[in-house]
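Quick check before the chapter quiz. The format below is the same one you will see on the exam, so make sure you can read both the input and the output lines.
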Amino acid sequence: MNRVLIVAEHAGGTLNAAVAKCVACAREIPDADIGVAIFAADGAAVAAEAASIEGVSRVQLVKNAANEPALAAVLAPQVAKLAEGAAFVLGPSTTFGKDLMPRVAALMGAPQLSDVMAVESATRFRRPVYAANAIATVEVPAGRTVVATVRVASFQASPAGGTARVETVAVEVPLPQSTRFISVSAARSDRPDLQTAARVVSGGRALGSADNFKLIQSLADKLGAAIGASRAAVDAGYAPNELQVGQTGKIIAPELYVAIGISGAIQHLTGIKDARTIVAINKDAEAPIFEVADYGLVGDLFTLVPEIEKLL
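Here is the expected output.
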């Protein structure tokens, strides 16, 4: 059996949707025995949620007051200790995973594989390179622990229905004293999370101003969608940085992606390639976004968006 340990991302007592996608990836590894590790101060509710994911055989809950809020420097030694003997240690390719997993790999002296998008065998995987314009096939050494981040946009979440056992385990390792939590500043919104939303409406530079960007917010409210933005819109100050979609922003895979006033620069297309349905609205019929869009509307967004809203 290939023992797989997935490090769970969670916040506010809720499991991040990316964890179920990591499970889907792990299930493609031959002879995988999948476990999920929860590092929290309490974590009982999160552990129960993880145990209900189909394909998970066990959930290990590591309780420690130092685990909240989650700091990579604090979690990494615990993950490395808990993962001893595992064939694979997986984490989501989110900000959380990108911060944590390299530290785990370094502590374990293990190779790291980033942005796994497909599993070919227990030692062969595929990952995107060159802004996802090329796909690299990577061979990892057999018989050694491999640390990897999962490109969650490439996997459908493993469904609920599991009945894994939950066990509380103690991990005794020295924790760093040089790192401490000071504060966190994060935008709060009642809208769906951008990286896990089924629907996303994004705006680009063509909106012209932060006030005009409210058109995006209004349409997103009608659709029950998350809001995104192109890099150009973020750089121009129309939208905050955390809404940026693309190679230097967030890689997403919603069921519906609506691109409004976005020309389709390659770095933006990298972030939406896995979207199921792409709708583009742009006055330039030659805009690159139309090459990847399933549906396109050529026209003035300031006319078309209000008309679409009236129909919803």
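If your answer matched, good. The chain has nine helices and 17 strands.
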